[in-house]
Design goal:
mainly alpha, 2 strands
């Protein structure tokens, strides 16, 4: 994959990471894409294989959802959301940009 394709991919995945403001705590909501979502967004089968079907995908999802647990007290909701979205960038970039 080309550098620009990877940026498009992680940007698209990052849009699916959002805050879910509970009554007592902040949580991260990740609308995990399906193979159909990838294809509807214009990504080909190779991208599905390299992400959704990869061994690292479940670990990324877990790290995204656990992000608030590692936030420092007093960090803003925007910071926490930014950290969760950074998880996506780090995973995708590290595994697909060679």
């Amino acid at each position: 994959m080309e550098k620009e394709d990877i940026k498009k991919l992680y940007g698209w995945i990052q849009e699916r990471v959002n805050l879910d403001r509970g009554v007592t705590e902040v949580t991260i909501k990740f609308e995990e894409p399906t193979e159909g979502d990838f294809k509807d967004a214009g990504f080909d089968e190779e991208v599905v294989i390299l992400t959704l079907r990869s061994e690292w995908w479940p670990a990324m999802v877990a790290d995204i959802l656990e992000t608030p647990e590692y936030a420092e007290p007093g960090e803003s909701l925007e910071q926490i959301l930014g950290y969760a979205r950074d998880v996506v960038q780090e995973y995708v970039w590290k595994r697909l940009y060679t």
